[in-house]
Amino acid sequence: PKVEIPKVEIPKVELPKLPTFTMPSMPSLPSIDLGSIEVPSSVSAASERGRAFVEDSMKAASQQAESLSKITGEVRFLRQDLPVEFLGFRPEPEPSTQKLEIRLFLALWVVLLALKGFAFVDCLRAPGAVFPSIGRQTKILWLVLTGLALLTGLVPNLTLSLFGIAGAVIALIYLFDIRPRIKSITGP
Fold first, then answer.
1. Is the whole-model pTM more than 0.90?
2. How far apart, in whole angstroms, are the C-alpha atoms of residue 114 and residue 107?
3. What would the pLDDT profile of 4-42 be if each residue is shown by its tens digit?
4. Please, what is the angle between helix 139-154 and helix 95-125, to 10°?
5. How far is it, in rounded angstroms, from Cα 158 to Cα 151?
6. Of 9, 142, 156, 163, which is least packed with CB atoms within 10 Å of its CB?
7. DSSP state for residue 98 in the 8-state scheme
8. In 73-112, which positions are buried (b, 16+ CB within 10 angstroms) versus exposed (e)?
9. Residue 133: CA atoms inside 13 Å, Cβ hemisphere, count?
């Protein structure tokens, strides 16, 4: 079924006429010949003093940068006015500090690798029947967990990653929670 929409006539309304405004005529401005203007000596002297101040400031800044580079050895700039450290980049450490960091990291890696390896080997040697009796999962689960922990310990770059830390936590849980319970049942 078709619905017919009735036609509605909208009456035409005439708006009142608004008064028009006219701008008064402006007299034309006289043209100025800039070549005929003389700059007072006080203005040109101030301009020269400003220019001299900027040049002196630039010389002083370059002298300070030179003296700073002599003191620190080397100053690296990304742009002339912004040092690299300002932009959030870490300056290269001193060689002695870098060697110390490497030695500490290697020591941490060796300690955590030994910890994870000991936990895995001890889990391998523990009897499987003891795990359910102490109320902790199965031996297979602990072998998988400590094995994965050991795998994360074999790669030095994973030592301080999320996986490396999780592996260390798993090894510590085994060594300080599961192992003492196993030893209490099986004996030393």
1. no
2. 11
3. 777 777 777 777 776 666 666 656 655 556 555 565 566
4. 160
5. 10
6. 9
7. H
8. eeeeeeeeeebeeeeeeeeeeeeeeeeeeeeeeeeebeeb
9. 12
